[in-house]
Write a structure and sequence with these properties.
289 residues; three-stranded parallel β-sheet; alpha/beta; single chain
């Protein structure tokens, strides 16, 4: 347990930061990591680092080392061993078999060109005979009217609409890789994690993950979504758009900038070290809702 924890019982809170190994950390990913870290430590809870490595074609060599080094420099020290999502493939396959046995899955031949406007199957593949030899994805059917909204710890009440949850979505890709929505739904459910804090760009994914958790009878964690960092043009900072790597030579400045973005109380000027800044941030952390 980090020295920032207070020594109270940690079994009631388990959080995580789950970067993909697709490059360095940038200002946006630091905000997500910082928010989840502070929320866990303020609650005297555990904070795990999980590498979401279920998409090997997008992986960038050296990313894991770069990510862990950057987190460590910024004082964001995780509990326990580093966990890799690819180690959970047996659980994902078990979840798919359960969904199939209940009649929720169907094979889909759609490509990007044949999808519906909202990303659902656009060729009525659910009602076609698709053999094993035909390249296909697996999709899960949805009934938005059966999924209640949820209380986001940062954004308040979130309601479900037909526009929020498509008629179906992919749970296993046509290249045989497990889809993010399935992996996150299975891995983030309790008892693995009790609280998920992440960027608001993943808010729509929460409805899909809640749907899968409901079908699989998994206990959902408490979700909270924080504002994403944007560039000067108003676009979300991301590795795909060339976001600059964090400058590890000034972690104190990076932490202060992250706290400002999260609307947190500014550490006093006397807090000059990473340890002092984080200690203040943990003590005065607020979720806003």
């Amino acid at each position: 347990m980090s020295t920032l924890a207070t020594g109270k019982d940690t079994t009631c809170y388990r959080g995580r930061f789950a970067p993909s190994p697709t490059g360095h950390l940038h200002a946006g990913s630091l905000v997500a990591a910082l928010a989840s870290f502070l929320d866990a430590r303020h609650s005297s809870g555990e904070w795990q680092l999980r590498v979401d490595d279920i998409d090997p074609p997008r992986a960038v060599a050296g990313s894991v080392e770069a990510i862990t080094d950057s987190l460590s420099v910024h004082g964001l020290v995780w509990d326990g061993p580093l966990v890799f999502q690819s180690a959970s493939e047996i659980r994902y396959e078990r979840a798919l078999k359960r969904l199939a046995s209940m009649g929720w899955l169907f094979r889909c031949l759609c490509t990007r060109a044949t999808l519906s406007e909202r990303g659902s199957c656009g060729q009525d593949c659910e009602y076609r005979e698709i053999g094993d030899g035909e390249p296909h994805s697996l999709r899960v059917k949805t009934h938005p009217e059966r999924l209640p909204g949820f209380e986001d710890r940062f954004l308040g009440e979130q309601s479900v609409s037909a526009a929020t949850l498509p008629q179906d979505f992919i749970v296993k890709r046509r290249d045989g890789l497990y889809a993010y929505q399935l992996a996150a739904a299975v891995d983030d459910a309790q008892p693995h994690f009790t609280h998920i804090v992440r960027g608001a760009d993943l808010l729509d994914s929460t409805y899909r993950q809640l749907w899968l958790q409901q079908l699989l009878k998994l206990k959902a964690p408490a979700y909270g979504h924080v504002p994403v960092v944007q560039d000067d043009a108003g676009n979300k900072l991301s590795k795909q758009t060339g976001a600059a790597a964090l400058d590890s030579r000034q972690p104190e400045n990076n932490l202060r900038a992250g706290l400002r973005h999260l609307g947190q109380a500014a550490p006093p000027s006397s807090a000059r070290s990473v340890t002092d800044i984080l200690a203040h941030a943990v003590e005065y952390w607020t979720v806003g809702k």
